[in-house]
Specification:
Layout: H1 31-34, H2 42-47, H3 54-59, H4 61-65
Pfam families: PLAC (PF08686)
Keywords: Signal
Protein name: PLAC domain-containing protein
Length: 66
């Protein structure tokens, strides 16, 4: 555990590090770009009105959105 005292003059000759560092990550993936059906039974899921269940929304994203 770090001591709760300040550095005092021990760091007076050092440059203070930046508080934040800017960065550039990979482009964001939108939900639309990854929304696709992962099961051949998705038409049945929609016909049985099961798109309100999260598991089926994920497995049958395209069908349940349409």
């Amino acid at each position: 555990m770090a001591p709760k005292k300040s550095a005092g003059t021990a760091c007076k000759d050092l440059i203070r590090p930046p508080v934040m560092k800017s960065c550039k990550g990979p482009p964001c993936i939108t939900e639309e770009s990854i929304c696709r059906d992962h099961s051949m039974f998705c038409p049945n899921v929609r016909a049985m009105n099961m798109c309100k269940i999260m598991r089926y929304q994920e497995q049958c994203c395209q069908t349940c959105r349409g």
